[in-house]
Amino acid sequence: MENKNITNDEINKITQNSKIREKAFFTIVRQSGLKPSTIKQLKIKHLERIREPDTPIPCKISVLNEIEKAKFGQHPSFIAEEAIKSLKNYLMLREINCKEKLTPESLLFVVNKNPNEQISVREMNRRFKRTAKRFLKGNPSLFQLNDLRKFFKQKSKEIGHNHINYLIGEIVDNSYIPEDDESYRMLYQEAKDSLNTEPAMRSSLYTREIQIEDLKKQLAKDSRYIGSILSLIHEMDNYSPDDPVDTHYIGDDLLELWQKAVDLQSEALLDRWTNNQKYPPYIDIPLTLTNIFKEIIKTYENLEKDEKQKGE
Fold first, then answer.
1. Which among 303, 53, 98 is positioned nearest to 311, based on CA atoms?
2. For 99, which DSSP code?
3. Of 36, 149, 160, 303, which is most buried by a Cβ count within 10 Å?
4. What is the signed CA dihedral for 163, 165, 171, 177, rounded to 10 degrees?
């Protein structure tokens, strides 16, 4: 019996119920079309700026001849937003939880707690099948890891048969002449939206709208403090004529510091939403500043009460 094509919903259920390493691996197979046996040999240096915040979309994978004995030697492949996000999360997990020191020579995927050992393709396929069997209806036991490669071919067929086969390291026509890597990037760009399966990633405009609305809701919670800070600055400018401290400049500094805190918090919230993950504690610095401002307000309110009581 021939397997049916795996659907977006089925892919999402499998990846959402997979561990972070497996999710990253499955997503790269799906968005690059590369053989699992090729992906397991990749190193961090083979992915274009994957450790940098400005990783290009699509991100190029350089598949060297030593990894995949293809007809033309080294060839490019690409991944889109979902694979980039999943992979960044996985690499961060290795750094933070496993205390691994990642370098360009580090393997992209490793056996847990053994950074020098490649993962097993057989084990990845076993986990894919097990997750499908547990969370999908019908006859999910028919699904194989290779179905993700079929998904790639199906969704990117507009690129053209030979171009697809070149990108995934399979046989092309004898007359085929490879183009430059940037030409393939442009071809992949045309198909990449079809390779995204997560609802929020299907439309970049829809994603951006959600980000903006989410940010507005989060920052609205802090808006009430802005008025208090402005009132505090006014009080500091007029608090005590005999105070040797130049309160006017203190007020300006506080306002500038508050704006920086809001800007940083905006970036932090967008990063959290986009990557769907809680980052290390340093990202919470703006929230800490908010608490400090609240304490300053409380202190000056108490001083004002003391002054009124003395006047009485």
1. 303
2. -
3. 36
4. 20
> Does the CA dihedral 109-113-118-122 come out positive or negative?
negative
Block residue for tokens 């980000």: 211
Residue (of 137, 118, 136, 101) closest to 21 by Cα position: 118
Q: What is the mean pLDDT of residues 141-156?
A: 91
Neighbours of 167 (CB within 10 A): 23
Q: Which residue has the higher pLDDT, 167 or 287?
A: 167
What whole-number distance in Å separates Cα of residue 212 and Cα of residue 218? 10
CATH class of 8-198: mainly alpha
Q: Encode burial over 126-164: b for 16+ CB neighbours within 10 A, e otherwise.
A: ebbbebbeeebeeebeebebebbbebbeebbeebeebbb
Burial of 77 from C-beta contacts in 10 A (0-12 / 13-18 / 19+): buried
Residue with tokens 């990783």: 55
Q: Is the dihedral of CA 2, 152, 14, 94 positive or negative?
A: positive
- Does residue 223 have a pLDDT over 70? no
C-alpha dihedral sign at 270, 275, 279, 282: negative
Domain with CATH 1.10.443.10 in the chain: 8-198
CA distance 286 to 261: 5
Inter-residue contact 231 to 210 (CB < 8 Å):
no
Task: Return contacts of 157-161, CB within 8 angstroms, 24+ apart.
Answer: 158/190, 158/191, 159/187, 159/188, 159/190, 159/191, 160/187
Residue 101 has pLDDT above 70, yes or no: yes
Under a CB-based contact definition with an 8 Å cutoff, are residues 94 and 102 in contact?
yes
